[in-house]
Amino acid sequence: MDATPYLLVQLSDTHITHPGRLISGRVDTAAALRHAVERVLQLRPRPVAVLITGDLVDAGHPAEYAQLRELLQPLIDAGLPLALVPGNHDARAPLQAAFAGLPQVHCGEPGATAIQYALDLPGPLRLVVLDSVLPGRPEGGFDEARLSQADALLAARPDVPTLVALHHPPHATGLAVMDHMSLQHGLAGFEALIARHPHVRRVACGHLHRLTLGQVAHAAALSAPSPAHQVALELATDAPLAITQEPAGWLIHAWGPGLPLVSHLAHAGDHPPLPEL
């Protein structure tokens, strides 16, 4: 039996801005994403899809999405399905307009009030994308309509292991400033949603610009680092928000015959193995 694993790459918080601009005058997010895309294309086995969990661009401007599409074009040309998740820095209409007409780029139904959808992957694994964005606000939330739609998406395939993706972390992390901007509204409803669906094996999010591991009901909840800049690990309750150039990275979720859903941290940059002794 072929034991080759299936891979789902999770990028997050790419924060692409206008061409030539730097985030905070220091961080070249375009160069960081270009490097991440190059590394994804080098992965073996070939990923079955690439998930990007929000804050795709920095200000929701059409010109930013145009640059994002250009940077993601090598993945599109390689035929890799892309699953896009909106974050609090995103704007739904310009996001969908930028990728209109590309059947392998998934970003919800045009004109929908929320970008929520399911994608069946081999293995099998089901990816369910949920929209936690509250326009104009940094924190996230779910209303009853979104939770009801999410419930229907999850109930459609109760026999298939499922990864749920959203932007905002659905639990506290101890990063005080970021916790004020986490999933603040409808949190109990989201926890009850996951608890009702035992086939949900993982909840994957972004927003935090660093790797964290938590839990929602029975499911492990992971946040992905950014391929560009990270939020400083400051756990004092009065610590200000600060960014750092800690190693950039992304997550690789792997599964397959004899392999449960396992998530790996991949660092950006070149890290050759040590020479043999």
UniProtKB/TrEMBL annotation:
Gene3D superfamilies: GpdQ, beta-strand dimerisation domain, GpdQ, catalytic alpha/beta sandwich domain. Residues 9-210 form the Calcineurin-like phosphoesterase domain. Keywords: Hydrolase, Iron, Metal-binding. It holds the Pfam family Metallophos. The keyword Transmembrane helix does not apply. InterPro entries: Calcineurin-like_PHP, CNP_phosphodiesterase-III, GpdQ_beta-strand, GpdQ_catalytic, Metallo-depent_PP-like. It comes from the Bacteria. Belongs to the cyclic nucleotide phosphodiesterase class-III family. This is Metallophosphoesterase. It comes from Pelomonas nitida.
